[in-house]
Specification:
Blueprint lengths: L2 H38 L6 E13 L4 E8 L5 E2 L5 E13 L9 E4 L3 E7 L7 E9 L12 E14 L2 E15 L7 E12 L4 E5 L3 E4 L8 E15 L2 E14 L7 E11 L2
Antiparallel strand pairs: 1-2, 1-15, 2-4, 3-4, 4-5, 4-6, 6-7, 7-8, 8-9, 9-10, 10-11, 10-12, 11-13, 12-13, 13-14, 14-15
Length: about 270
């Protein structure tokens, strides 16, 4: 084969490779965006294991940082009549700084939470689910938990429209058993969330966790964060991941309480 023939063949191969890669690009990008939407749906048909690391700044009388690592596996379970159950387990380990003068800081396991979402068949434009939320008195030290078994109602509703995944998730826990010398629990947790998905698996996210301790004084009851962050779908070998970094400022919080928080999350994704 002449040099000219080899040159033409090389150029043709290069053009073909460019065309193939250009054709594959949008498909791969779309796959990443679709996977991001699945990962952002708290009641989707996706198995995942999120690792959520939180740093809360300015906690306690000395305004020390608090660290919380939540491991939160969840997975769908098919039920009769096309219903779906999604159990979610939240296992926290934390460092609690000095909460008051004369009280030591502590490290250990917090209270394990179990959330059971029941989803009806054939969701429409609004995807919704409901079920019980439970918190178990598994804390290894008193200041790491309430010392109570708590249970309460829970609900979620969301919609997926174009690049948007947005909704709200909420539950209220009430103590039903546990250490009688500890204060009763009545706590609301609500998390509105909105994700805007960008090309190539990137996304913008805001998902503040709003809490209210109904047993506290009215001016010490609420924690209301504002903020958000950025995330990306990526792969390490064959393992698909969703990672995000978010920061929030608490416009309302008990005193003394955290003013700022930062959350880094890495989720192992197992799509069907």
């Amino acid at each position: 084969m002449s040099d000219k023939s080899r040159g033409r063949k090389a150029r043709a191969s290069l053009v073909l490779a460019v065309l193939l890669s250009a054709g594959a690009g949008p498909s791969l990008a779309q796959d990443a965006q679709d996977l991001a939407k699945q990962a952002q749906n708290p009641v989707g048909k996706l198995m995942a294991v999120p690792f959520e690391f939180n740093r809360f700044a300015g906690v306690g009388p000395r305004e020390d940082p608090q660290y919380v690592l939540n491991i939160q596996p969840y997975f769908p379970v098919s039920l009769p009549n096309a219903w779906t159950l999604i159990p979610r387990f939240i296992v926290p380990t934390l460092h609690q700084p000095v909460p008051a003068p004369g009280v030591d800081d502590a490290d250990g396991l917090g209270e394990i939470n179990v959330q059971l979402f029941f989803l009806p068949p054939k969701p429409g434009a609004i995807i919704w689910g409901f079920g019980p939320a439970l918190a178990f008195p598994t804390a290894t030290k008193d200041i790491l938990g309430s010392g109570k078994l708590s249970i309460g109602p829970m609900a979620v509703a969301l919609t997926i429209q174009g690049p948007w995944v947005a909704g709200v998730f909420a539950y209220n826990l009430f103590s039903v058993a546990g250490d009688s010398d500890r204060r009763a629990v009545s706590q609301l947790v609500a998390q509105p969330f909105a994700n805007y998905n960008l090309p190539r698996g990137w996304y913008l996210v805001t998902a503040p966790i709003i809490t209210s301790d109904w047993k506290a004084d009215s001016d010490e009851r609420w924690t209301v964060p504002l903020g958000g962050g950025v995330g990306k779908i990526l792969s390490i070998g064959k393992q698909q991941l969703s990672t995000s970094l978010q920061a929030y400022y608490n416009v309302e919080h008990p005193s003394p309480g955290a003013e700022w928080s930062m959350t880094f999350t890495t989720s192992l994704l197992f799509p069907k």
